[in-house]
Amino acid sequence: MTRKSSPHRSGSRAETRDPKAEGWHGWDDYAQFYDWENAQTLGRQDVGFWQRLARQAQGPILELGSGTGRVTLPVGRIARVPLIGIDRSDMMLAHARRRLRQSRGLSRVNLVRGDIRALPFAGHIGFQLVMAPYGILQSLVRESDLKETLQSVVRVLAPGGLFGVDLVPDLPQWSEYRGRVRLR
After folding, report:
1. What are the residue ranges spanned by the domains of the chain?
2. Which CATH architecture has domain 25-177?
């Protein structure tokens, strides 16, 4: 399913998928636990890495699967350029927007609801850095989803731009969670 996206702060327009049309919809239910869980696991250890990359960016930054703003907000505090976080979950974005409103110095941060397989930005934006933190690409279970996401990133990445990918080792086993995290 495709639809025209509305222009965002950057004034871009592109064809995009309806973020709820397919795929796992549990992210909305998971939003209330997401920050707590990441504070218990390896998820808390990657923010410094993304901040170091963002300090070097000379143009706009895009975070794929920005969720509750766990990476977006700390990176936005140090970035000297516009930063856009994109996520398909309304509830994750609601948490991020609430946190964004409560923070100072984040006027360059914008949150967008969309699908990373069909990024809703015209190719002329030219992101200098596209961030794929904490196994976001590993959450794409179909090869076609990964291929579409990578093609979408190539379309919006500026020439000479950087695509940073964080992979979680042993993801199929989720061994870091064993005996530590339980949701009832």
Report:
1. 25-177
2. 3-Layer(aba) Sandwich (3.40)
